[in-house]
Please model this.
Amino acid sequence: MPRDMLRELILPRGHASLLARRRAEMIISRIRMIAGLFAILTPLWIVIDLLVFSWPVTILLVVGRIVTTIAFGVLAVSFRKSIRMRDAYRALAYMFSIPTLFFMYSHPLLSHFDMAGPAAAIAAGYAFLPFVMVAGLSVFPLTAVESALFAMPVLAAEALVALLQLDMLNWSSHLGAFWLLFLIATVAALAGMSQLSFMMSLVRQATHDGLTGCFSRTSGEELLDIQFHIASRSGAPLSVVFLDLDHFKKINDTHGHDAGDRVLRKAAETLRGNLRSGDILLRWGGEEFVIVLPGANGQTAASAVARLLKIGLGLRPDGSPVTASIGIAERLADSASTWHELVEIADQRMYEAKMGGRNRVVGCTPPLPQGAVVNG
Ligand SMILES: Nc1nc2c(ncn2[C@@H]2O[C@H](COP(=O)(O)OP(=O)(O)OP(=O)(O)O)[C@@H](O)[C@H]2O)c(=O)[nH]1
Model:
């Protein structure tokens, strides 16, 4: 497994990424579904409580169940769909706090009364609530750290309740229960990580272009949207580079489609390998690429492009270097109010570069310092 992927399974990263968006969507929709289900199941158990427990336990449990039902119901209907992990964390915290509080209320209550027969069996069932909760973590695609953080309050509640009842049970049985809870939490975290890993590969397949491994146009547009919003909110610069390989059709026509594919793959590989980690490379279509440079002003973007072209975009089948016509646009310098506008400006400049004779860069105003032609 690549080290990057392993790191992402352990620590939550890239909250502005496409994976984070899909993950938030999935977590929130599952929480709404589970909360809805528990809003129905929790009051149904009142019938069992009424049958097996006697006054005043019954009424106290019924009150607890009604409050719990309302809390689950509110969670199921009030949480809007969201693509932000912050909202997913809030929903998870809310959902896990409901049964945790119910456990802390019901378990000490039941242990204050001597019970026998079916009542004792049902009362013992209440003690299993924390086990069910930590096992429930496996339903969500979470990293190891996230699972640990959400399991911790449940473990703390179990420890607290055990401390309050030390006179009733001995230390060893409490330690045994705690150890079992810890093991279940570990298994649930592993299940959550494997879900996350599966999700990562699905998201990767859906968001990347099969030939070049770059982000596809659709996912790239979503990333542009995210980056444009981040830059607009913080007032930071954001550059877009529109790059179109020159005379690409000739490669296909002369050497065949496979040779064209190899040239595309090589160009994408060199571009990707020489960008900074926060930069985004997407295949806009055919032989067109768009590079998104968050935080880069026009000058920085021009330097980055000059560096890339110095390294080169690979060779054509006849051994001559692959060249490209390039347009650069920057959010602030070009007063772009949407990412569509920004890409449009970069695209127009790429077209100017084509019209100017190809194999050149047209940047934002003021014009590029070292002359427009690069790698000429
Ligand atoms: N091999 C291969 N060719 C592709 C792919 N996608 C698009 N093309 C080809 O890329 C060529 C693009 O041709 P044009 O738009 O005329 O561009 P060009 O020949 O590079 O000319 P200029 O852009 O004007 O320099 C077309 O022949 C497409 O069929 C692909 O995935 N693989």
Remarks:
- The longest helix spans residues 171-207.
